[in-house]
Amino acid sequence: MKKKIYPKKNNKKPATKREKKEVKKITHVMKVEALRLSRAFPEMGFALLLFKHNVPGVANYVSNSNREDMIKALRETADMLEAKNDIPECKGEA
Predict the structure, then answer these.
(1) Predicted TM-score of the model (pTM)
(2) Are 45 and 64 spatial neighbours (Cβ–Cβ below 8 Å)?
(3) What is the tens place of the pLDDT at every residue in 41-58?
(4) Are 61 and 47 in contact (CB under 8 A)?
(5) pLDDT at 6 over 80
(6) At 15, is the pLDDT very low, low, confident or very high (cuts 50, 70, 90)?
(7) Considering only CA atoms, which of 34, 56, 59, 58 is closest in space to residue 44?
(8) What are 24-31's contacts with CB under 8 Å, separation 24+?
(9) For residue 12, is pLDDT > 50?
(10) Residue 85 — very low, low, confident or very high, per pLDDT cuts 50/70/90?
(11) At residue 1, does pLDDT exceed 80?
(12) Residue 62's closest CA among 1, 2, 10?
């Protein structure tokens, strides 16, 4: 049985129609991209993180891994990047 993939939502509820529309768009795009990633790389785990610039603590993510494995991978990646040990194929600015 295939594992369900869905965006994990933050606890903040959208207050306005504009915010609700934005959340709906984010959710749709993240689901589509998660499906594409899982089909393209069926043997790999992924976490797609989407956040607003300069708004601390607000992010949405989608992952095909269990929460503990995803957090471990994110921590390891952050540690490597902070130590300036970039992933060889991904060096450079985004």
Answers:
(1) 0.67
(2) yes
(3) 999 999 999 988 888 888
(4) yes
(5) no
(6) confident
(7) 34
(8) 26/50, 26/60, 27/60, 30/60, 30/62, 31/5, 31/6, 31/7, 31/62
(9) yes
(10) confident
(11) no
(12) 10
The rounded distance, in Å, linking the Cα atoms of 63 and 31 is 10
End-to-end CA distance of the chain: 36
CB 47 within 8 A of CB 30: no
What are the tokens at 46?
Answer: 């992924």
66 by DSSP, 3-state: which? Answer: coil
In 3-66, which residue ranges form alpha helices assigned H by DSSP? 17-40
Q: Is the pLDDT of residue 7 over 50?
A: yes
| Residue of 71, 8, 2 whose CA lies nearest to 38 | 2
Q: Are 46 and 65 in contact (CB under 8 A)?
A: yes
Q: Rounded distance, CA 36 to CA 20, Å?
A: 25
Ordered by start, the domain boundaries in the chain are 7-90
